[in-house]
Write a structure and sequence with these properties.
alpha/beta, 2 domains, 338 residues, Rossmann fold, Quinone Oxidoreductase, Chain A, domain 1, 26% strand, six-stranded parallel sheet
């Protein structure tokens, strides 16, 4: 039995390497992976070589300065099949989630793993990092009763964020994405309207949805991964409105129009990132509490329905190529380990 690990060896270059399955240390467990999910945001920046050198992130592979070759990934679900002498043997046989790169086996301390709650299967559980991100975004956005909300980008995090916002008593929630498959997924959530940003009448249609009140949206959430989308957010946000920026753009840049509507409208730009908890909440909230909320969001939303492709790990390169060259064909791709 060999451990199979996906390595990023250069921009747009992957290798599947076989290594000996490691034995657990004294206080470690060995997990046999069932599924890992590919992030179409952060991972694709790494795949394309678009991560800034020396980037400060949670990911060890990136914070080392992106020295190829490196394994990467952070959405793994599997079963504990081995345990070190100091580990409670009740861990054996448990199905767990781990923030671990794409590999058929991995070692971890039990404290770093999350046992899947009762009734949540592997195909929903691999969405945990995206669900936690969506919870963090909504907490940072702090929607108010009756607000008009715009969500730009309906990838996995955008869909989860829209689904959570849909649970609030808002006046309306409008979502935006350039891909038809994502727009259809967004419609299934039950949002007020879904728009195509490439439509020549996109802006006028968005404003028309607000009726006679006009003026723009109270809150916009930017999740496209495209920095130029911030101009759309600015153009459609009302006086003293808020724009929550959840995208990590990596090394991508775009000029922004900050000399007109933005300057005179007192629009607030807020960066939201899941590695920390907002200082306003950190006295009462911690990671375990936020994970608990994310698990319950997964239970309600059942995001496994957005898995469009299940790819054997041996064909991982094909999966990344699809996300790079034909992103309209996939919402969530998972790698399977036989």
């Amino acid at each position: 039995m060999a451990q199979r690990t996906v390595y990023f060896v250069g921009p747009r270059r992957l290798e599947l390497r076989e290594e000996a399955v490691p034995a657990p240390g004294d206080d470690q467990v060995l997990v046999r992976t069932e599924l890992t999910a590919i992030s179409a945001g952060t991972e694709m920046l790494l795949f394309r070589g678009e991560v800034p050198q020396g980037a400060d992130t949670d990911a060890d592979a990136i914070s080392r300065g992106l020295t190829y070759p490196t394994p990467y990934g952070y959405c793994a679900v599997g079963k504990v099949i081995g345990a070190g002498p100091s580990v409670d043997k009740r861990w054996l046989g448990r199905t767990v989630f781990g923030f671990h790169p794409h590999a058929s086996h991995f070692l971890a301390s039990p404290a770093s793993l999350l046992e899947l709650p009762l009734g949540i299967g592997a195909e929903d559980a691999v969405f945990l990092p995206s669900a936690e991100t969506a919870v963090n975004l909504v907490q940072d956005a702090a929607p108010i009763l009756g607000e008009r909300v715009l969500v730009l980008g309906q990838g996995v995090v955008g869909l989860l964020s829209a689904a959570l916002l849909h649970e609030f008593p808002l006046e309306c929630i409008v979502t935006v994405d350039r891909f038809a498959s994502r727009r259809r997924a967004s419609e299934s959530i039950g949002v007020s309207a879904v728009l195509d940003p490439q439509d020549p009448e996109f802006s006028s249609k968005a404003i028309a949805l607000l009726g006679n009140s006009g003026g723009g949206f109270d809150l916009a959430v930017e999740l496209t991964g495209n920095p130029s989308a911030l101009d759309d957010a600015i153009a459609l946000t009302a006086y003293s409105g808020r724009i929550v920026v959840g995208s990590w753009f990596g090394s991508k840049k775009a000029p922004l129009d900050l000399g007109g509507r933005y300057h005179r409208s007192r629009i607030r730009l807020l960066a939201s990132q899941v590695s920390t908890i907002s200082p306003e909440l950190s006295g009462r909230w911690d990671k375990p509490r936020r994970f608990s909320v994310a698990w319950e969001a997964i239970r309600r939303i059942q995001p496994g329905r957005w898995i469009t492709h299940r790819v054997p790990v041996e064909r991982a390169a094909d999966a990344y190529r699809m996300l790079d060259e034909s992103p309209d064909e996939a919402i969530q791709i998972v790698l399977q380990y036989s």
